Amino acid sequence: MLNEAWLARREGWRQQEEDARQAGDIDYGRVIHSASFRRLQGKTQILNLGDSDFYRTRLTHSLEVAQIATGVVGLLKKNNAHHPAASVLPDRSLIQAIACSHDLGHPPFGHGGEVALNYCMRDHGGFEGNGQTLRLLSRLESFSRDAGANLTRRTLLGVLKYPASHSTLFNPDLTPAMREGYSRLTALDAGRSAPPKCFLDTEQDVVDWILEPLPEGDRAGFTAWQVRAGQHGKTLHKSLDCSIMDVADDIAYGVHDLEDAVALNLVNEGCFRAKVTPREADSFITAMRENYPHELGDRYEAMVQALFGDGKSRKRYISRMVHHFLTAVRIEERQEFESPLLRYRVALEEGAGRFLKVLKNFVMEEVIRSATVQQLEFKGQGMVISVFEAFQSDPLRLLPKEQRERYEESEMGERVICDYVAGMTDTHLLKTYERLFAPRMGSIFDRL
Q1: Is-contact 373 266, C-beta < 8 A?
Q2: pLDDT digits (tens, 9 = 90+) for 67-107
Q3: How far is CA 8 from each of CA 21, 125, 210, 439, rounded to the nearest angstrom?
Q4: Global pTM?
Q5: Does residue 225 sit in helix, strand or coil?
Q6: How far apart, in whole angstroms, are the C-alpha atoms of residue 227 and residue 216?
Q7: Domain extents for the chain?
Q8: H-type alpha helices, 20-89
Q9: 28: which of 82, 97, 163, 239 fits an S-S bond (Cβ 3.0–4.6 Å)?
Q10: Exposed e or buried b per residue across 388-405, where buried means at least 16 C-beta atoms within 10 angstroms of its C-beta
């Protein structure tokens, strides 16, 4: 049994007698009813694909991650009934709360917006999307007076993807900067300006509270990190619940973003064959032979033809891929930890892990890093920096009323501006930029 402290909340809250919900149900309800969760519908998963009712947003992606994570937990409980980790696996609502939360802190325009805000905050503690997720849930949401959504300690541990602070992992040789040597262009040095994967120093007290029930040795081991030459530091560990969410996120990213890319003709069959070879897809092909012995012929060819065929055949093979990865999740044990929430975590079997990595790399190289997407990301970064610096230049004049009041009350004004910009949807950021900088006069009745 786990220590009851994992169900504690930072701010006192008494559940009504007639309320039949468990702790995870309450956390899940607060996440999906939060303003941050609703805003995910306005943040695209693959940057600015245009007007379409098909492509995935951060919201639909988060729901898919939650569904996959629930499937992972269900299979682990079914296949590991006598494993010591079985008794501490999260319930359905708890893992869904964690999974639905995992992208809350990501700003407009995806990774490009994250890098831009980290540049804007270079002298004020930096910015990182996962760190902003913890900040939203523990500070900024409105379900409590001073504790944000006031979620349980265990849920926040599951959201804590990188258990080391920005100042701990930050490499000063990678201080965000603009590129030099241009007479008319102001361009961000994206390589230098990417943040470490961390939590923000503003939430150090929250993290201390989250880790309080752990034995001292577990706390030290869990927050350990690795120095990397020429890079920011890197954390080494995730909790059990976080590892389930992380695997589900990888599956959703590798498989569902591939589906979007194929359906929207962003990749072609020849390129897929060159990058995702029969050798790299071997685990999936083998599984297809075992699970569907009545289907004859070359299984690799069947996969490719289905993915690049009609929508029904593509969806059938996308579902088969997801199932393949779900059934390849295994429990690992880290004997250096005493607490079961750290001692156990999940990962994919080697073959399935290799196949998923190839799919993720394919989407990254052929879509995310394509000139078309990078040009839009470049433009988005410029707009994020311009909007941030406009508010920074005269916050009491330009910030909306609620944000202006927060700014006046805060000792960290830039962090208030950052919170506001990071919370914008893609469209809100674009319209704010147009209102501030577009030549047309505009109107107070223009809706943001």
Answers
A1: no
A2: 999 999 999 999 999 999 999 999 999 999 999 999 999 99
A3: 15, 29, 9, 53
A4: 0.94
A5: strand
A6: 22
A7: 244-371
A8: 23-32, 35-39, 58-79
A9: 97
A10: bebbbeebeebbeeebbe
